[in-house]
Amino acid sequence: MRTRHREPQTLGEGTLDRMARILAARNIDPATVAAPAQEPEPFSPLEALSAGMPPRYRAAVADHPQVLAWVRTVAEAAVAPNQGARRQVTTGPSLLMAGVVGAGKTHQAYGAVRRLVQSGVGVRWRATAAADLYAALRPRPGADSERELAAVSRCPLLIIDDLGAAKASEWVEEVTYRLINRRYNHELPTLITTNLAIRDLRAYVGDRVASRLAQMTTRVEFEQVDRRRPRLAA
């Protein structure tokens, strides 16, 4: 049995004339008819990353020495899932960045993720404010909070912003423990920012979480300057 090969069909003048008459009969301007969609321009990994970031942090730059050291360590630990594939973040150390409101902690966290991508490493990541995380995990009708906790727990790279900003409770301490414990056990890199002094963090998260954070994170204390406030002229 022979396969028949059809030549690509083009629209002849007669067909185009009929289409023009149909559009005219319906009072449709041919110029307004949408042209076939063109293939989108391919995104670079950094452009794709920036598209998923809050606009305020799309140009964030990590320049703190300890943050840059963390980036290098995580990048060196990245592995390729198969030969020829791009190396991906899998395991690595974590950072706990403490300082006053506006010290630049969140900026450094997003900048660190951008720096990883710029180094040629693939990153599957999530970012959440601690208060938003607790709101998403709080049991409620129609929501599977356990599935959400599992998804956040196993994300290869996680930013937890403003740990300690939500109101403390036994439930918050339990959820925080379950999340941190899973990431601790699987050695998943986590970037944590907090406005609490490190010495005050234990009272908020509890002994079990504080113990794991002490082992899994490098602690970075930012200078006591609120960078969000405009500087007054001398």
TrEMBL record:
Is the keyword Membrane in the record?
no
Look up the signal peptide feature and give its range: none
Q: Which domain of life is it from?
A: Bacteria
Sorted alphabetically, which Pfam families does this protein's record hold?
IstB_IS21
Which residues belong to any copy of the IstB-like ATP-binding domain?
Answer: 95-209
Q: Which UniProt keywords apply?
A: ATP-binding, Nucleotide-binding
Keyword NAD appears in the UniProt entry: no
InterPro entries, alphabetically? Answer: IstB_ATP-bd (IPR002611), P-loop_NTPase (IPR027417)
An MF annotation (GO) of this entry:
ATP binding
UniProt name for this protein: ATP-binding protein
